[in-house]
Each structure stands twice: as C-alpha cells, then as structure tokens.
Amino acid sequence: MRTSGEEEAAKIVRFEFDCMKAVHAFARKHDIACDSWEGDTVDIIYDEGQWRLAKEAIAEIQRVLGEAEPAAAYQFWTAEEAEEQFLTKGAFGAVTYEAGSLNAYKFVTGMLTMAMEKGLDLQTGTPALQVERADKVWVVSTPRGSVVAKRVVFATNGYTAHLYPALQGVIVPLRGHVTAQRAGSGMPARGLPTTYSFIYADGYEYMIPRPQGSRFAGDIVIGGGLTKAAEEGLFEYGTSDDTTIDPIIINYLRNSTIGYFGSNWGNDHSDGRIRKEWSGIMGYSADGFPLIGEIPEEEGLYIGAAFQGHGMVLCFASAKALASIMCDSNDDELDHWFPKPFRMTKERMNHNFQGRLHMTAPKDLELQGQP
Fold this sequence. Notes:
Blueprint: H1 5-29, E1 37-45, H2 48-65, E2 75-78, H3 79-86, E3 93-101, H4 104-117, E4 130-134, E5 137-142, E6 145-149, E7 152-154, H5 160-163, E8 171-181, E9 195-200, E10 203-209, E11 220-224, H6 247-261, E12 274-285, E13 291-294, E14 301-305, H7 315-326, H8 331-335, H9 346-349
Parallel strand pairs: 1-9, 7-14
Antiparallel strand pairs: 1-3, 2-3, 4-5, 5-6, 8-11, 8-12, 9-10, 10-11, 13-14
C-alpha cells in the first residue's frame, strides 16, 4: 500500500483472490482432474513481531476492502486453539482464510490438451535458444529450426534474461526446495484437513497435504527453508540449475515436520519419512510484482513472467490480461480489474534486483494477498 496506494493495493488483493477462485472453477467446468481442493488455509505464526504485523495488515485489508468482502475474511486463533485445531506447538497464534491447492502439472497439461484439440501446435523437447528481430517479425531459433512470428511471448519466468539480456537483473532466478514426506503415525488417518504456512522472524515454509483421492493421499509436501542456508540463502539467487539441491536447506526441510508438530507427529512411516525431494526455479522481479505486457520499444514482443513463487494466484488471470493487451482491448476496462503495478513499463525495465522482497513477512505494513 505504501508504494501503490490504497486503490491498487486493494485491486491486488481482489485480483489474487479472484484468480484463485477462477482456477478451480475452470478445472471444474472442463473436468480437469488435477487434485483440486478448496477450503481454508492456516498461517501458523511463531514470532511476536510477525503476529503483531499480521493483525495490523489484516485490519488494514478489512478497512480498505470492507469486512464483508470475501477476500478480507480472516479468523484469528490463539496459541492454545492453534495447537488443538492444527496440531502445531509453540506458536503465538494462527490465522485462517480461504485458499486452495491443486496439482499444477495436471492442471496445465489438462489445459494444453484442450488447446491442442483447438489446433495448438505443441513442440516438446524444443528449447528456444535465441530470439531476434528480423524486419517486422521475430525469429525464435531452436535446435530443430526457426519459428517466425509477428508476436512472441516470453513465458520463461526466471530464465527470461537468457533469451532477452536487457532483463538481466530485472528478473532474477531463485532456486526453491521442496520435500514430499509420508505422514507420521500421529497425523489424522485421512490426512491433515488444510494447507499450512509456518511463519517465523526471517522466513517461512508452506505445506500442502495431498488430498483424499489423489496419489499418495495424506503425504505432506513442504517447501521453503531458504534463510537456513549459508548467508540466509543469498547464493540461491541467480541459481538457474534445478538438477541440484542445497544440502543445508534440504536437511532442514526433512526435519521441519517434526519441528512444527512435535510429539503430535508420532512415529515416522515404516517406509521412511521422505518420499522425494527436489528443487525448482522461480522468477523474482526487482519491485516484487509480475511483468505483464508488451516490452517497451519492442513491437510484438510480450512478457508474462516474474511471479515471485506466487504463481498459483497470479498466472491464470495474468494470462487473461496479457491476451487482452495483445488484442488491443480497452485499457479502461482492463484497468478496472488488472493491477497497474503488474504492467510492463519502460520505468520497470530500469529497476535492478537489490535483494529479498517476499521471502520473509513484511517489515513495513502493506496489504498482502492470498498465498
């Protein structure tokens, strides 16, 4: 709210909430089997300062949006209530609000299948090596030949600067880590009923139980741990290799479930706690917002990237906005629902990444969207 003003800050909160709802509605409408789950999520807060900031931020959201707004519906829980309801120990308190989860891979492949039925030509195993301007068209070079088009979209997130060097430092890759864990014997037989975030002074983890009916139902997927690495994870920025993992972060994540649930975790599964562990590359912008629109002074070259590890509530609706921009739709209509800070501008091309923005809870009070 400090940087964007109340109107745009409120628009961002509504945008993320509406995007989340739209994703699940789309999956239902088109019968995409993607383990879609809708319900309340919980933020378990372990730091007194973050607990105070959460209360202040939510009060601001409800002041600006109005308490009747669905995106402003939050419930606070005391430490005792949090342990009883969510089985976590040692927290200052908890906050619940509407959210959801799904298998992003299954959702995207479901959408691709629909698009291919409508004529999409999908070339797998064909990386883009270079993008160049040639007269009034763009040429995308690949190992299997070149593609010529009047309009090209960079949907390459943390890898974008490799193809368009002018965005070096504007979008920075960040390697994130995740583990999939078999639930302990003390966890509910049908799995934990909600998704979690664990928020502490200098970072957080997020946790998604696999829903009933999905493969490995009841398993716990937990990611984060960035600040536990050397130099608080500094060297993960600029890392674009997701075939490797940081041993300090992964070891922390392996033990994080026991740390958060304590004796409520019970004994580890007879097959072992860890089912799988991996890393992935996210894209972060200098100002903490996605980059959506036509690249300045590059007619026909567009971007939809830099989702800050927050893409589940940004990508779907941002793609709709980008399509509107590419079709020269009415700007006033788009501005009614699409946040202006997300628009690609010449000014944002001059913002270079200086450090972490969204890997810890905010030090200054701002309106926060849904995780």
